[in-house]
Design a protein that fits this description.
By secondary structure, the protein is an all-alpha fold. The chain has eight helices and no strands. The protein starts with a helix and ends in an 8-residue tail after the last helix.
Length: 214
Amino acid sequence: MNKKYLNYSLLALIPFLIIIAIVIFNMNAIQHLDNLITLEIVSWRTPLLSSFFNAVTILANPMSVVSTVVILAVIAYLLTKRIDLPLWILITNAIGSLALNPLVKNIVQRSPPNEAIRMVKESSYSFPSGHAFSSMVAFGCVIVLLILSLKPSVFRHILIVFAFLIVLFIGFSRIFLGVHYFSDVLAGFSFGLFWLLLSLSFFLARRPEIKAKK
């Protein structure tokens, strides 16, 4: 494994481990704070914001993520003429979204916020947020591809910031729409970043010739 990215992945996992420990062993310690944050954010709802965040959250729906990842894999191949990078993108997203995150959801089995405040249908467990996890992994792959294929420039920086903002907006949309708590989203981001960096550490260890553009 690439030790640098392995260490980064372990750091990224720390918030997830702290939150999951609190959720499992002392739910009341975090539930009160989550409820306060949820009620505050829900109070910001307006027709315009509701329409905006309904649209944003669709970016991390299963079909949207699949489409994004497939398109990203094709672009990765066209830019690099390598098959290993597109395969890494596909495998990382598939394992994370289809296996790892659902596994944790079913272990923790945290119920989502009260149905009365939900603006969209949600049938799965709440912790960790699948949308936060999937967006972090998918758009994290976008950022990795940008770093590997484009030389540093204002344009590259703008694209990276844009991808990062999409992830943040998706996470916020889940709280705004009343289907996840703040801790669900934060844990989803942390777990997603951990998985992305861990997967990247394995990939780069076997492909040392792949480096960021300079």
